[in-house]
Structure formats: C-alpha cells, structure tokens
Amino acid sequence: MQISEFIQQLPKVELHLHIEGTLEPEMKFTLAERNGIELPHKSAAEVRASYDFTDLSSFLTAYYDGMSVLRTAEDFYDLALAYLRKAAGQNVRYAGIFFDPQAHTSRGVTFDTVISGLRRAQLQAEQQLGIRSALIMCFLRDFQAEYAMATLLESLPYKQWIIGVGLDSDETGNPPAKFAAVYARARQEGYLLTMHCDVDIENSAEHIRQAVEDIGVARIDHGTNVIENPELVEVLVERGLGLTSCPISNTWVSDGSKVGLVKELVGRGVKVCVNSDDPAYFGGYIADNFQLVADEGQVDNSFLAQLSRNAVDISWAPLALKAELRAEIDALFK
Ligand code: ADE
Ligand code: ZN
User: Which ligand 1 atom minimizes the distance to the CA of 138?
Assistant: First the structure.
C-alpha cells in the first residue's frame, strides 16, 4: 500500500488543533461579508500571500487579526463544522479542539456566543459524520493571570461541554508558573490539564519542567525541547506523559519540522503524536503532517501507526472509543 493511502486509512486522533487556526481565507471573506466588515486584502489568494511567518509572534499577529471576522454563534458553528468535515474526510475519529475565549471576549463577543456555536457543530458532526470531539479551553498567556482566572470562572456554567484547559499565545516571558493558581483551580473544578511549551522559546526546557513538575499537566503541546533534559525525558516516559507535536507548524515558527526529534523521542519511549495546530495558516491538515513525517523521517507504516496509537493513548477520549481505535489500527496490519 502506498504510504499516502496508508495515512488516509489510518484511524487518527487530533489533539493539537486551534479552531481559530482553521479559518481559511475563503471563509474569512464569507464571514466578513455576512458581518459587514471591510477587509484590507482583495482576495483569498492575497491573504495567503501575506502569510510570511518567521516566528511565533509574527504568526500570532496574523492569527488574531484573522479572527476578527468571527462575531456570531453561527460564525463559530460554520468554522467548527468546516474543520470537522475536513478532519472526518481524513479519517480523524476524535479531535480535542482548542478554543481561545479571551481572543473573543476581549473584543466584545460573549463566551456563550463562542461556545454555543462550537457545541452545535460538534453535535452535528458526531451525528452526521461520526467524528467525536471535545473542547479544550485555552488561556492566553500574554494576558494577566487574573484574566485567565476570571475566564475560568466564566466557563463554569459550561463545564459539561469542556474537557480540559490549555495555555497558548506568546510564551516568551510568560512561563507556566505565572498560571499556577489558575491551573490549581482548574484541576479542582475537574478540568484535565495541558499547556503549550512551544518549540525553541527562551527557557523552553525550564518551561517544560515547570509544566510537568510544578503544575502537573497530563500532556504537553509541542514540548520537543524536552530532549535538552534527559532526566525529564525519563519522567515523561515513566508517567506516560505525551507530546502533541506539529511538524508543519514548526517549519513556520522555528528552524525545521523537528521530525528528527519526534523519531528520537518516540525511540526513547515518549508518547509523541502528530497534529496540525493552525492548518489554515500553516497550509496542512493532519494527513499532510503525517506525510511530512513519512517524507522527512523516512519512516515506515508501522512508525506512523505508532504515532496514531500514541495519540489514542494520551487522548481524553472515552475508554470504549480508545479501545475501538486501537483495534482498528492493529487490524490495518492483518
Ligand atoms: N495559538 C494558536 N496556535 C498557537 C501555537 N502553536 N502556539 C502558541 N499559541 C498559539
Ligand atoms: Zn498550538
């Protein structure tokens, strides 16, 4: 079987996907028109041509600018349904979906507007496309910890719709420790915990140490700089604490895809998986990320299947679904 066909058939779990990062330029124009917003660019092609990120911060400028067209619950519904359709088409069976409420509440869009639109799309996609999903609420780390805490409190009436919390946005100067009290409260409220430790940030390895040892997260988003601390690599292995890596994203915000590190860490027993991060901005959904691992890493189908098993293992999907997916992945080799 061709590797691209194997990737398509492989049952997949996506754990690092920002729903706002799935806003394709075409949809940006549709929503701008519906909401009476004038855009500075004339066409989707022009928007795409303007993407020229050299680091996390230059990407984030485009990312926050893009989402200004998201205003109504219907906008969030359309956005999420479009992603879930694409993901289901690539045989993603379960997605942990990040959303950034503060990027919306800070510009006057209510928490209820955001989450009710996303929720409606999740329910419809599960019923009609068979793709399961769960929402992970991210705090913006370049805002004050007090605002994150207020957002956590605001989320409580919607607790049944949110499986866990994450931390994203500009990491430089915004270490995990800044959010220790917010994470302690989130844990108390029953949320599961993850956070970004982006690639090649100042003090990346120390941020990973704080996330694991001081905050006690269940997994880390990106996090491949753990390679700089072999003892911490051992801790990840012992605790089954996984990393959600995003190869195509890495090529835009750092130097290279880090596929070599993914291979090295998987070889040492770390549960690393592959994800698409912000596919509308970085130009590739999950299958494209698997393909990049195959092309650059020169790995075989069994390695790609291992990445998918790792995603199942470290996901917060229902246990019955996890068992089903493991059996389906194994069956590909029969
Ligand atoms: N927000 C959206 N994508 C992100 C990423 N990869 N890192 C940090 N913040 C983000
Ligand atoms: Zn991310």
Answer: 1
Separation of alpha carbons 84 and 14, rounded Å:
11
Domains of the chain: 5-333 (3.20.20.140)
Q: What is the mean pLDDT of residues 146-172?
A: 98
pLDDT at 36: 98
Which chain residues have CB less than 5 Å from ligand 2, an ion? Answer: 277
Burial class (CB in 10 A: 0-12, 13-18, 19+), 66: buried
pTM over 0.85: yes
Name all residues whose Cβ lies below 6 A of ligand 1.
18, 21, 56, 63, 168-169, 196, 198, 249, 277-278
Burial of residue 123 (CB within 10 Å: 0-12, 13-18, 19+) is: exposed
Cβ-based neighbours of 220, under 8 Å, separated by 6 or more: 194, 195, 196, 197, 208, 211, 212, 226, 241, 242, 243, 244
Distance (Å, whole) CA 14 – CA 300: 20
Contact status, residue 232 vs residue 265, Cβ threshold 8 Å: no
Tokens of 49: 């041509």
Say if residues 132 and 126 touch (Cβ distance below 8 Å): yes
Tokens of 70: 């998201």
pLDDT of 267-319, one tens digit each? 999 999 999 999 999 999 999 999 999 999 999 999 999 999 999 999 999 99
Q: What is the mean pLDDT of residues 145-156?
A: 99
Answer yes or no: are the C-beta atoms of 288 and 321 closer than 8 Å: no
